[in-house]
Amino acid sequence: MSLKLSLIIPAYNEEKLIGKNLSKILSFLDKGPYTWEVVVVDDGSSDGTCRIVESLKRTEVKLIRLDKNQGKGAALKAGFLAANGDYRIFSDADLSVDIETISPFMQKLKTFDVVIASRRVKGSVIEKHQPWLRENMGRVFTLLTQTLTGSKVVDFTCGLKGFRALSAKKIFAKSLISRWAYDAEIVFLAEKYGYKVCEYPVTWVNRKDTRVRLNKVIFESLRDLIKIRIFALQGKYD
Hints:
Elements: E1 5-11, H1 18-30, E2 36-43, H2 49-55, E3 61-66, H3 72-82, E4 87-91, H4 102-108, E5 114-118, E6 125-128, H5 132-149, E7 160-164, H6 165-174, H7 182-192, E8 197-201, E9 203-205, H8 214-233
Helix pairs in contact: 3-6, 5-8
């Protein structure tokens, strides 16, 4: 019997929440009618993230360990290329989007090649907003990404995205961005390769204990967006 779902979870120094949230994930998946695996990719954590994942002792939970911190894009690439599911979905470890959203995602993936969680399409709900500066920086990132890639997607950075196996294999085999603009690259490649993309409205809650430094993110995001454009012109995505 083929494996129906691979859930990929990138994690970096998430010992405070990874145990509790994996328990939520496993409880939800255990109730489902389909076969599944959870692929946790530890992005060079220096805390107890790996120890907590290993302590679960579940054969359905795979742990991939990157030797050093390489960025979320690199972690996702490793996870997606190691996954075996017909449908491959990634979720942020903080579960800002409820894990039960996987069910409608899988339904949508029967029709679409790529499904993107969105906080900015009709039907979406933000229960707890990010601070004003962070939220508006996200909007600026969206505008820059649309300008540099030509995409019409309205929310690139929401932490839940789903793929059919074939689209996942092609997109992540070609992805080159390791850090902040990985979302933009994923969407750009999906559209470049002609995949059917759906933006799905979700309920989203901001996580308080972010470790992101805005000044660093702004610089690296702009740099990586420009890289995507250059890589495309150089034919590296062909």
